[in-house]
Specification:
Strand order of the largest sheet: 1-2-4-3-5
Mean pLDDT: 92
CATH architecture of the largest domain: 3-Layer(aba) Sandwich
Distance between the termini: 41 Å
CATH superfamily of the largest domain: Zn peptidases
Order of helices and strands: HHHEEEHHHEHEEEHEEEEHHH
Oligomer: single chain
Number of strands: 11
Number of domains: 2
Strand content: 15-25%
CATH topology of the largest domain: Aminopeptidase
Helix content: 25-40%
């Protein structure tokens, strides 16, 4: 951008931003995410450049968002069209992994004091970092909020350059950890800013942690990767544990799908030499039961994370569908064999079990029920969606 950037004192500025930023309880998909917007707005409204250029920072509301979240943004306008985009997310995951120290997870200074009291019990790399005094600890400190604080500080420092060549855009995104509502709206915002201020985007820098091999040499990862989250739902047939062949256990089918897809390298994309996307992994998997009883669950469902570089969503779903059909068929064959063996031992007359393989997309399912139930289904569907929207908005339910 410009060789005249004076970064004297920037370390102190970054830490001054970081501590209150970390204290914000911006847990993903909660109303706490909106507190980020106030923090962001307050910071830039107190900087001379942005006081003179009030239209160079703001928020873009996310359309139809039940929590009324927004994407926060800022612009430092120099000469020319070339633009660098700085981007980070502001939502955080649970602090339950901090266990006895979770009440300090958002307070780096207090957490450091507590950790020093148990330093002898910590892993060597953690105790070494703690003793060095070079690191702060806490949720998001060495992750998105640490990187975000650097970006915010840089925006302030670059705004002081009177002859700046080029432009800087900062995006602060909610909902990275869940459904990416922030990034999907961020694309819309980038287009609006591009058209309004005649920007030519040349580079985007996402501040995330990295694993450097040498302490003083950082690592840049070039390029990006796609994120898909296929949802699989398996409907079974309810039966008591004493009458297992009268039912179909969805966990049997679902667990087979999980085993067949977990870390399956056929889902990995390979580009260039030695570049490949990580194989998929399951991030969410449960059944329909809210408490224990002696019946099979009625259904099971889950989400698998698939990272792509070339594959389209359709290609990924087609692969999953083929696997699901194969697993379902195998489960039915195994169940029939087990039933036949049971009949042979007990003298019960053998017969074919009534189950058959059927795997369809949600689009195919909706089309089918709309054709059969019409307005009755549409009315019930819309009512359920309205109730879900309300529950998320009021905090009764977290997606």
């Amino acid at each position: 951008m410009n060789r005249h950037l004076d970064i004297k004192g920037i370390n102190e500025e970054i830490e001054k931003i970081l501590i209150p930023y970390v204290r914000i309880k911006s847990f993903t998909n909660t109303v706490g995410e909106k507190d980020i917007e106030d923090f962001f707005r307050y910071y830039f409204s107190n900087k001379p450049y942005f006081q003179k250029n009030e239209d160079y920072y703001g928020t873009l509301p996310i359309k139809d968002d039940p929590l009324n979240r927004s994407v926060s943004w800022a612009l430092v306008k120099g000469s020319g069209c070339e633009t660098v985009v700085l981007i980070h997310h502001s939502d955080i995951v649970s602090i339950e992994d901090f266990r006895n120290y979770k009440e300090y997870a958002l307070s780096p200074y207090e957490l450091e004091k507590k950790l020093r009291c148990i330093i002898a019990s910590l892993p060597a790399d953690v105790s070494n970092d703690l003793e060095s005094g070079d690191y702060l600890f806490g949720r998001g400190v060495c992750d998105m909020k640490g990187g975000g604080s650097i970006q915010i500080a840089l925006m302030n420092y670059y705004s002081k350059i009177s002859d700046l060549k080029g432009n800087l855009v900062l995006l602060v995104l909610p909902d990275e950890e869940n459904l990416s509502a922030g990034m999907r709206s961020g694309v819309v915002l980038l287009r609006e800013l591009q058209n309004k201020y005649n920007l030519n985007y040349k580079l985007m820098i996402n501040s995330e942690p990295h694993q450097r091999k040498q302490k003083d040499i950082g690592v840049f990862s070039i390029g990006s990767i796609g994120k898909l989250m296929p949802f699989i739902y398996v409907r079974g047939f309810l039966a008591h544990a004493g009458k297992v062949f009268e039912g179909l256990n969805p966990l049997n089918v679902m667990s087979g799908i999980v085993r067949a897809t977990e870390l399956n390298s056929n889902f990995s994309d390979t580009v260039f030499s030695g570049e490949a996307s990580p194989p998929p992994t399951w991030l969410y998997f449960k059944d329909s039961k809210e408490h224990y009883d002696v019946s099979m669950p009625l259904f099971a469902y889950g989400c698998i994370s698939v990272q792509t570089m070339k594959q389209t969503p359709k290609e990924v779903l087609d692969k999953i569908k083929i696997i699901a059909e194969g697993v379902f068929k195998q489960v039915l064959n195994d169940t029939q064999k087990s039933y036949d063996a049971f009949c042979e031992v007990t003298g019960v007359p053998q017969q074919r079990l009534p189950w058959s393989v059927k795997v369809i997309s949600i689009g195919e399912f909706l089309k089918d029920v709309q054709q059969n139930l019409g307005n009755e289904f549409n009315g019930n569907y819309n009512k359920i969606m309205d109730n879900l929207f309300s529950d998320v908005k009021t905090g009764k339910m977290v997606v």
